[in-house]
């Protein structure tokens, strides 16, 4: 009988992170749910087997905090087989309209947090000659729109970071998958969209957290370097990227739904 895989998931208190947690527990893995705030009622909410679910409170935007977390995982479990860099925040607002503290927290969490966590857990994977890093970006990183300039920039950074990391880790046994979902129907969307209008405008494209988790899980199992969903938005982003600058200016108003 094989030992369960050790899976670390940041941003696991709700939405996609919680869906990934449930899915991996269903698959028999041992999951460490990293959250900004303490998780309560772990065994009843997440798993019937408390020996396969653990939680840890960490601020991924704080490098020392992340290093302590990785050290705890190393001492307690000895390895990390899959790392999901899922923690992220968004504020749909213009650059001028966004509070500077919100701007800095977005960059700290969405960019530095991904790099801090990867850097802290990567040595464990390299020592074992295997592992999988899954960076949760967004289709917003492919196509930026009004009121998402900061968020889109942060997710574009995650996409390029993932690409560079794939080259750095070639031949090491450690794989990297970059996931680029479209809008997901979770509390994350409610917090990001203060007006409440965005949800209704993209209702037909909304993904559920569970279906997004399944798409990503399948990509990880297949060792894919990237995965994007839903299909229609994925194709729209590809086509948009092929347009010349002049046509992009004409199309841009159709994309601004925030």
Automatic annotation (TrEMBL):
Instruction: Please indicate which superkingdom the organism of origin belongs to.
Output: Bacteria
Coiled coil ranges = none
Task: Spell out the InterPro entries in the cross-references.
Answer: NAD(P)-bd_dom_sf, Sc_DH/Rdtase_CS, SDR_fam
One GO term in the molecular function aspect is: oxidoreductase activity, acting on the CH-OH group of donors, NAD or NADP as acceptor
Which keywords appear in this protein's UniProt record, sorted alphabetically?
Oxidoreductase
- What's one Pfam family the UniProt record gives for this protein? adh_short
Q: Which family does it belong to?
A: Belongs to the short-chain dehydrogenases/reductases (SDR) family.
Q: What is the protein named?
A: SDR family NAD(P)-dependent oxidoreductase
SUPFAM superfamilies associated with the record: NAD(P)-binding Rossmann-fold domains (SSF51735)
